[in-house]
UniProtKB/TrEMBL annotation:
It comes from Marivita lacus. It comes from the Bacteria. CDD domains: HTH_XRE. Residues 7-36 form the HTH cro/C1-type domain. This is Transcriptional regulator.
Amino acid sequence: MLTGPQIRCARAALGWSLADLAERSAVSLSTIRRAEAKIGVPEINLPNLEALKSTFEAAGIEFIGSPDDRPGIRIGTRKP
């Protein structure tokens, strides 16, 4: 599971705008805004959360920790 801060940090680390993330993940802008505003795990449907996660991972972001124990990101290299 991802948290709102992890989503914000991953997007910032990649230099993506909300529109960039929406286009790449096929998740609506309003859903991404709601997800980023949440401190813990966003209350969005699981397919959207998984789409965000897989989009970030394809761009080289690794999610570390858990929602309850030091959630964060690690910036890796983009996968071919």
